[in-house]
C-alpha cells in the first residue's frame, strides 16, 4: 500500500502533494514540508498509509473517534 502526503487547511480542505511506495521517502518529504511551513500557517502536513487516494482522503477527513484502525 502506498503512502499519501497531503496539506490540510483549517477548513479541512485537502491538497494531495505526492504519493510514495516507501515509508522513509514519504517521511522525508513530510518533514521537509513541515520545516518549510511558516509558524503562523493554518496548514498542516500529514502522511497516511491507505489502499488508494480516495480511501486516504476518507480517513483524513473522518473524525478521530470514528476512525477504524486495522481495516
Labels describing this entry:
71 residues; alpha+beta; 3-stranded antiparallel beta sheet; 3 strands; globular
Explain this structure.
By secondary structure, this protein is of the alpha+beta class. It has one domain. It is built from 2 helices and 3 strands, in the order E-E-H-E-H. Strands 2-1-3 form a 3-stranded antiparallel sheet, sandwiched between helices. A hairpin with a 5-residue loop joins strand 1 (3-8) and strand 2 (14-20). The model has no long low-confidence stretch (mean pLDDT 91).
Report the uncertain regions: none
Fraction of residues in helices?
25-40%
- Overall geometry: globular
Strand content: 25-35%
Count the helices. How many?
2
Number of domains: 1
- Calculate the terminal CA-CA distance, rounded to whole Å: 13 Å
Radius of gyration: 12 Å
- SSE sequence, one letter per element: EEHEH
SS-derived structural category: alpha+beta
Biggest beta sheet attributes: 3 strands, antiparallel
- Average predicted confidence as pLDDT: 91
Placed side by side, the strands forming the largest sheet appear as: 2-1-3
Strands, count: 3
Amino acid at each position: 500500500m502506498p503512502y499519501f502526503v497531503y496539506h490540510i487547511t483549517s477548513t479541512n480542505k485537502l491538497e494531495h502533494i505526492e504519493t510514495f511506495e516507501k515509508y522513509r521517502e514519504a517521511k522525508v518529504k513530510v518533514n521537509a514540508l513541515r520545516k518549510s511551513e511558516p509558524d503562523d500557517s493554518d496548514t498542516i502536513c500529514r502522511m497516511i498509509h491507505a489502499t488508494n487516494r480516495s480511501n486516504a482522503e476518507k480517513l483524513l477527513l473522518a473524525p478521530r473517534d470514528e476512525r477504524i484502525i486495522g481495516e
